[in-house]
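Case study 2.
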Amino acid sequence: VGNDQYSETWTNGDYVSGVFCPSDCNLSTGKCNSATNPDCEKDKGGTCVASGAGMTGGVKCTISSSVSGTTVLNYSCGTAAKVCCVPSTSKIDGKCTTYGNTLTRKPDVTCVSGTTTWIDSTGSDGDLNWQCRGLNGGDYADCRALYNPCVAGGGSCKTSCDSGESFYSAGNSYCSPGKCCKKTTPTPSASPTKAPVTDGGGRPPEDDGGNTPEPIATAVPTSTVVPTVTTAPTATVRPTITTAPTTTVVPTIAGGSPKISFKFSLRGIKPSYIGKDGRPYDCFDKLGGLLVDVVNSPTNTYQTGMTTKFEAIGETNINGDQVFKVTALALDASKFASVNTYNYVKIKGPFHVKRRMCLDGQTAKLSETTVCNISLKSDTVYDFSDYTLLAGDIDANGIVNAVDYSIVKSNLNASADISCGRRGDLNMDGVVNWIDGSLISKEALSSRDDE
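Prediction:
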């Protein structure tokens, strides 16, 4: 697949998983050939180095004491302990992983080089679409793979459905000219001696498969009308970030107690703007708070929903965006006093998608299998500023979509006087204009919170 450096596993016609090979793939066996000296972009100064970012592209790395670089390829250098590192002065174009078969699930590996940005990860139109964005100024590549939601939804394409199967309309359009058929879930027969089975709170229990079975019906006289009892679903309440955080600001604490300090950036927000009077200004005081979660992976210890203030510092990131800093965010000592360094931090801005930060100097989304290295007991100020929080999640539902874009459009008024805190002002210059719209339409549309 691709450049013959990708081995994938299929079971009964369904894609299961895939992995990049250090050298190349044996097309007869579908397994990786052994290799000790893969190419690693040698023509661009690349070299294999030890890194905690194994099999991940877009992370800062060190080639020597005087040369820094970026991890470039999504496969290891013959061992999981090393990764290909290319000098930051070398441009690397994005390159797609290609698939010869129709996928039934979102693939694990999407780019041969570059970092992955999903455009459509649900296959809503029959295709999965993403971009492999180049590194160090390299070009991006548009990528796609065929996707069959009939099979993904547990169905199969047939000329006609068999006994015990039903027509599955959600995937039928991908089975033309046949039908998408799915096994029918049997409905338990009524029993005149048993009342509906519940969990004691009026709700049917869940079965081992995670499905909620139909309650067993009670036989009643035909003249009696049995009312239908509908259990209201429990709503998930999302924390609301306002310009004035309602939660208690976490204080700065003394060394030795668990804490975290880090730098981050919010896409499109610049250090300052020039007003009509020729004077510089900013609207940072209207940004509100930053939502923070901290998790220790091995012990599944976590502290979520923390809201903290932050400050602008005299730095910008690679995009020229203002860098902000959170200093000594205090954590719960009863949870984190004895944990190791395998921690990650999730941060979400006032109208931004949530980012999962795992390594110092991180520049892109990392695989969930990446070994994180964030200490909660040091004075280190971790730099996450180059993995920018994209702007646009105005309604804070975890995805940037047409609803958010419509909010910006409804507030457009480029000729209005500067007024900090306008809804839809994503770059915080006090005016809602085409710049705010482009931050969604050209950069963040369909972006989701990191898992």
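DSSP finds four helices and 26 strands in the chain.
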